[in-house]
Amino acid sequence: MKEFIKGIFITGCAGFIGFHFSKRLLDEGFHVVGVDNINDYYDTNLKEDRLNILKKYTNFKFIHGSIEEKELLDNLFEQFQPESVVHLAAQAGVRYSLENPQAYIQSNLVGFANILECSQKHQVHHLLYASSSSVYGNNSKVPFSVQDRVDHPVSLYAATKKANELMAHTYSHLYNLPTTGLRFFTVYGPWGRPDMAYFSFIRAISNGEPIEVYNYGKMRRDFTYIDDVVECIMRLWKKGPSLDHSLPYKIYNIGHNQPVQLSDFIDVIEKNIGKKAVKKLLPMQPGDVLETFADIDDLEQEINYKPMVSIEEGISKFVKWYKEYYTT
């Protein structure tokens, strides 16, 4: 086996997006070094099962560890000398940030600072990192553009993601470190996160249990299928950093550009499961936003691609995976 030198370093490789992107790279023959701490924010069995798929590849090397551990990261960067880093590890979830803010400070701020410091110290050619549509808060102008001001986050999670973008900008400025931020818009699909609404809806409806529908189903989300997300990351990674500005710094919206009302989304789930939902209609939750809607003109122009998987197709694929995974 070849040495894992001059390869791709991926954080959060056992997470939802990290797993799918790692698998895509491995399928294309790239050497991947993945790190993940397998925390218990949600079912660790799901993370382990994702990881077991990746471990079957001879061009994959897994490191169990946390990005908050600066010494560990320093040693890994020294050992593997990655040419590029795709940073997808984070403490996710808007609502959980109300319960456990410290987890977000440690993972999303301390951990990201460690990634930036190691990347500049070891002269990484390109750092791509996960941001979030949450940074737009309750901006009323739609679709959301990366040119819009994002100064009013409505959750700590959103605030940490905005902070990540500012931190990346600083390192691009001070050290000429090429960075690319990815504002993901409600990513869903097979092997997804159980804390996401669509996952919990499908589980509850399948079991005949009621679902909690916030803002009475009148929220709108720009649901983006995982395969589309991976294709966008892949094209941006292969393209390399943006060097057409004074700084090697860029941010992109990664969204479907077609928001769907929550009540309509639930209708699609019901059709795929073949059961009606028992809905518990509730008011808006703290930290939630009314709508997300991605302007992806910059993304299309840069990579000649736009997400194309419809909600109907995406939910159908997820339900198929869900039934296979939880019945075998």
Automatic annotation (TrEMBL):
CDD domains: UDP_GE_SDE_e. SUPFAM superfamilies: NAD(P)-binding Rossmann-fold domains. Keywords: NAD. Residues 8-255 form the NAD-dependent epimerase/dehydratase domain. This is NAD-dependent epimerase. InterPro entries: Epimerase_deHydtase, NAD(P)-bd_dom_sf.
